[in-house]
Amino acid sequence: MMNKKQCDFFEEVSRRPGSYRTYEELASLLHVSTRSIRNYCAVLSDYAAETDAGVILNLQPSGLIFVG
Known about the structure:
Elements: H1 4-14, E1 20-22, H2 23-30, H3 34-50, E2 57-59, E3 63-66
Antiparallel strand pairs: 1-3, 2-3
Helix pairs in contact: 1-3, 2-3
């Protein structure tokens, strides 16, 4: 189960599928650290794997793309 900030992260990245978003941009929007954004990515990826949703984030060294 995801917490409120993780859900906020998911809502934000899912608004613009296929768009590249930097960790810094997302951290600023959600008022958290870039480390938190990387942790949210891991939680979301783990959740997708557990529910057989497949790959939903394409992670890059400085950002990510939500692929749904």
